[in-house]
Amino acid sequence: MSQIHVRAQPQDVAPFVLLPGDPGRARWIAETYLDDPALYTEHRGLLGFTGTYQGIRVSVQTTGMGCPSASIVAEELVRLGATHLLRVGTCGAATPTLKAAELVIAQAAVPNDGTTRQYLGGAPYAPTASYALVEASVKAARAHGLRHHVGLIMTEDAFYASSPEHARKWAGYGVLAFEMEASALFLVAAMRGVQAGCLVTVSNDIGDPQLVPDEVLARGVDEMVRTALDAFVLIARGER
Question: Is residue 101 part of a domain?
Fold first, then answer.
């Protein structure tokens, strides 16, 4: 049956789903990389498309910004039959060692958000990406010859609240970058018995409100999406 927010039928959604936050990026991904993409929902602006990539059926589903929206979409996608959820988005670098448009493959996310706290009743927890998706993403990035970083990220709620001092403090604990959806995605996937991962490209330095130049960010997004899709292919073909 159709879900409350992701207005689709189970047959509409592929097992492999890319999760951008931005509906415009969802449409761009579907029209740029997928063969025969078809729109299956546009309810509440949460655009969803399904097509194929190298013969593998793939969906692209908008999550919106932040953990509350992303967790709703993830829950409903699982009910619609999705088994592999891979966030593709942007992040703020916690340290200048990360350069503009470089790829970050998350192993885990510090849950500095309210959604995971509500799910867990405040209990301590370490939201972790599925190893299969991390492994396949690293393999795909290496095949493309991409400079990439693998490690810990932090998920937060307030985009404009982070400061350079806050970022450098957490960089000292191993945090590479900050974003707004991964911790809830990892938790929902673990609870519902599916796999989840997160790829993000560096769009700015924490504390700097200016994004990197459009053409630089576009290159990073392209590399990220190709890596994500190729990771799905590796898993689908049992080649990871």
Answer: yes
